[in-house]
Amino acid sequence: MSQDFADIPLPKAWPKRARSAIIHVVSLAHSAIVCARGWAVNSPIARVRLRGQLEVARAEIALLTEELRIKDARMASIDSRKRPHYRPTERLAILELRAARGWSMAQTARALLVQPATIASWWKRIDEEGDSPLLQTPEPVNKYPAFVRHIVCRLKVLQPTMGKKRIAEVLARAGLHIGATTVKRMLEWGRAHPPTGLGDKTPVATADQALAGAAAPAPAVAERRPNRPVKSTRPDHVWEVDLTLVPTSAGFWVPWLPFTLPQRWPFCWWVPCLIDHFSRRIVAFAVFTKQPTSVEVRSFLGRAIAKCGHAPRYLISDLGAQFDCDHYRTWCERKGIKERYSSKGSLAATAVIERFFRSLKEELLRRGVVPFHRAELRALLTSYIGKRWI
């Protein structure tokens, strides 16, 4: 028996729930798509892996397009005479974007919410000199190498598909003859010194609250072992170990209780790190798809000790379940290590590694999306740690 949809009665107070229902539906679709993508990027078939990466890229482009539409709508609602002016560095970046896009003045003005006459004025005054010119580079490029480095970095930003050889060939046609290895060094410098002033990035918080909620410490042990300050006097004297959550591009927030998706892959990675307190170098790291157990953490620490050839005198950690247990303390005693714990609710003892976690997440998320594949994440972390910390 068929029934017209108009005859189906709606739930009570339906208009009051419509907006929240929209958010719930989008979140459910997001969770389902993330699980499907996670299966695709780890498929043994290369064609399926490439298709999964393509779907991730398309989804990211669609989300960025919607984000820009929302921001443009807000800016367009402000009277043009009351809108904030572009800074000199942003004006030059707009003209660079126009050249990369091949836009006309009208197209550029429409996309950036200014008047075509404004773009024309910027173009006429592009070579203006003085103490405060209308257009400026993010940093002075009054030297030839700095000028070339700026061009190389901007080419890579505006044309990301261009490799080091292609950039060198393009510059050669313009009369700048530099080698591909020089272009590579300039690009590495550009990644290490991203431009500032063209947008703010919100710092990514660490997952200490999630870790504390997932594993409650034993208060009796904390009282039985008072904290005593330990001062590092030489390399490999004091090590610090901790775990953190690195969210993938999928994220792990949803609008229903308990407001988080499962804290495991494909929504996030668990990354334990071991840092030397004296030299601030990263001794070792690992990647887990879910919260590691005490056995897995002890195995990770054992591999780090075998790699260095000796164990530290002190090993500082928090009161997580992986560390605040008899098996961990027995393992430390067998290795000749004196374990130390941070106070409950205090990050002073592990401040060094927590600061590293914050820098790590800010740098990784500024570069782009965190990969779903374990091998790609390991390569990304190895590149970051090798350049910044060792």
Describe the structure.
This protein has helices spanning 14-41, 46-76, 88-101, 105-112, 116-124, 144-158, 164-173, 180-192, 208-214, 219-224, 294-308, 326-335, 351-367, 374-388, and strands spanning 238-247, 268-276, 282-285, 314-317, 338-341. It is an alpha/beta fold. It folds into three domains: 15-70; 88-192, no CATH class; 208-388, Ribonuclease H-like superfamily/Ribonuclease H (Nucleotidyltransferase, domain 5). A hairpin with a 5-residue loop joins β2 (268-276) and β3. The longest helix has 31 residues, at 46-76. Residues 198-226 have low confidence and may be disordered.
CATH homologous group name of the largest domain: Ribonuclease H-like superfamily/Ribonuclease H
Major sheet: order of its strands?
3-2-1-4-5
β-strand percent reads 5-15%
How many extended strands?
5
Low-pLDDT segments, ≥5 res: 198-226
Q: What is the CATH domain class of the largest domain?
A: Alpha Beta
The helicity comes to 40-55%
Give the integer mean of the pLDDT values.
Answer: 80
Tell me the domain tally: 3
Described by the principal axes of the CA atoms, the overall outline is: globular
Q: Supply the helix-strand structural class.
A: alpha/beta
Q: Could you list some keywords that capture this structure?
A:
Nucleotidyltransferase, domain 5, 3 domains, alpha/beta, five-stranded mixed beta sheet, 390 residues, 5 strands, globular
Reconstruct the topology from this structure:
Elements: H1 14-41, H2 46-76, H3 88-101, H4 105-112, H5 116-124, H6 144-158, H7 164-173, H8 180-192, H9 208-214, H10 219-224, E1 238-247, E2 268-276, E3 282-285, H11 294-308, E4 314-317, H12 326-335, E5 338-341, H13 351-367, H14 374-388
Parallel strand pairs: 1-4, 4-5
Antiparallel strand pairs: 1-2, 2-3
Helix pairs in contact: 1-2, 4-5, 6-8, 7-8
